[in-house]
Amino acid sequence: MAWSRTCFNLGAAAALLVGAATQLSAQVTAELDTFWSEVSRTVAQGDFDGYSATYHPDAVVIFGETTQSISAALTGWEAGFDDTRTGLVEASVQFRFSKRRNGASTAHETGIFRYEALSPSDDGSVQYIHFEALLVKRDGWKMIMEFQQNPASVREWEALGPG
């Protein structure tokens, strides 16, 4: 009798913990959705300062086999943001996820992003890129690692469904 009561109590405690973890995960996922929406907004508006603020100051960006600090990457991207802000380019980025792992203050997101840039001088380009991101919650969510992996296909993008 004592053994079955103990098992019941452990089972009830486990159910409560799983419920609390699910609730936390849903809350954190909603916060991360807001983070990715902000990234999309800053790209579309050419808001370089806002975009820069989505990264932790010590962030690292990985492009295939090379790495660089976020400060170096941002230096290279700033002109594109200026062109978007002034209307020379129309840019957008969207995210879809294949795996989302998160806790109260850390997250690992895996998926594909779709980046499009249009200008009067060309028909525009669309890129689909597999990516991984590590984020930490420090005065809001900040990306500490962005890994832009290999190109993705439209079929892979569509298989992930709407963001």
Strand content: 35-45%
Helix vs. strand class: alpha+beta
Give the tally of structural domains.
Answer: 1
Which bin fits the share of residues in helices?
40-55%
**Rg (CA only):** 20 Å
Average pLDDT, all residues: 88
Biggest pleated sheet? 6 strands, mixed
Walk me through this protein's architecture.
The protein is of the alpha+beta class and 163 residues long. It has a single domain (2-159), classed as Nuclear Transport Factor 2, Chain: A, CATH 3.10.450.50. It contains four helices and six strands, in the order ααββαββββα. It has helices spanning 2-45, 48-52, 70-85, 154-159; strands at 55-63, 66-69, 90-102, 106-119, 122-137, 141-151. The chain has a six-stranded mixed beta sheet. Strand 1 (55-63) and strand 2 form a beta hairpin. The chain is globular and about 45 Å long.
